[in-house]
Amino acid sequence: MKIRKAVIPVAGLGTRFLPATKSIPKEMLTIVDRPTIQYIVEEVVASGIEQVILVTSSGKSAIENHFDYDFELDTVLQMKKKEIMAEELNHISNLIDIVSVRQKKPLGLGHAIWSTRNVVGNEPFVVVLGDDLVLSKEPCCRQMISLFEEVQESIVAIQRVPMDQTKNYGIVEGQPYKERTYKVEKMFEKPAPGVTESNMAIIGRYILQPEIFSLLEETEPGYGGEIQLTDALLKLSRKRAMYAYEFEGMRFDAGDKLGYLKAIIAFGTRHPELGEEFKQYIKQVSADF
User: Fold this and answer.
1) Which of 35, 42, 59, 246 is close enough to 180 for a disulfide, judged by CB 3.0 to 4.6 Å?
2) Structural domains of the chain, with CATH
3) Residue 273 dihedral angles phi and psi, to the nearest 5°
4) 99-127 per-position pLDDT tens digit
5) Residue 277 above 70 pLDDT?
6) Which residues lie below 8 Å from residue 81, measured CB to CB, with a gap of 6+?
7) pLDDT category, 189, cuts 50, 70, 90?
């Protein structure tokens, strides 16, 4: 079955970025010349996705507005002969069909995904976290969809992390299936030291079978008093096969201050207009200090 829909949860409060996110959604913080959420949407569009489902909360209207058509702004840009800028804004509003679902209570990622059940329906779908950026030659979602076309089962994207950081992630144990791919055997949500010897950490990309919705509905609140997606994924992996895919590319947690700065440098140094000058400036600043 073809993957047509992508769920992007953007309901979080962004407390790691306060006070910047007091009035601006963290997903609207800019990486070079576009907000984080635009990079995410462009990735799923480049991967062949046909519809984006945003899971929002109060105060997140700026995200929806960013992808909407602004007649007044378009008119002003046309009058001022700023056609290139007008074309860019029209490109954004025409990227993809976007619908929104409101997460009414902050009950965690699992609950956010469960909230989309009536829009997703009975078909597999992609989940992409709104502040997890991946810089790669082939879009990370496209890499995962290619694997799904072969295995037709749920997939979690993983990366190797230092063992002292495993407590910050969902961790997978599994047996090799083929290059960069493992068949999942066990999963742990933010395990304490010594619980697992695996350092395969789940990052913000998933392909899920629709059975996940009934499992999420049955899942009791776990770590942090929230409905954890990892708990439901473990149940799903016991019912049918699940795979972990070690994606090709660089991942940035743009919801973290240091990760955000790293993303700016990585994307900025590759910018077609500003990249070379930005590289020289970084060298100059590094030398000065």
Assistant:
1) 246
2) 5-288 (3.90.550.10)
3) -100, -35
4) 888 888 878 899 999 999 999 999 999 99
5) yes
6) none
7) confident
At 69, list the tokens: 């058509």
Omega into 9 within 30° of 0, i.e. cis? no
Distance CA 162, CA 145 (A): 27
Residue 24's Cβ-side half-sphere holds a number of Cα atoms within 13 Å equal to 15
Which pTM value belongs to this model? 0.89
Q: Which positions ≥6 away from 284 have C-beta within 8 Å? A: none
- In the predicted structure, residue 263 carries a pLDDT above the cut 80: yes
Tell me, letter by letter, the H, E, C secondary structure of the chain. CCCCEEEEECCCCCHHHCCHHHCCCHHHCEECCEEHHHHHHHHHHHCCCCEEEEEECCCCHHHHHHCCCCHHHHHHHHHCCCHHHHHHHHHHHCCCEEEEEECCCCCCHHHHHHCCHHHHCCCCEEEECCCEEEECCCCHHHHHHHHHHHHCCEEEEEEECCHHHHHHCEEEEEEEEECCEEEEEEEEECCCCCCCCCCEEEEEEEEECCCHHHHHHHCCCCHHHCCCHHHHHHHHHHHCCEEEEECCCEEEECCCHHHHHHHHHHHHCCCCCCHHHHHHHHHHHHHHC
Query: What single letter denotes the amino acid at residue 209?
Result: Q
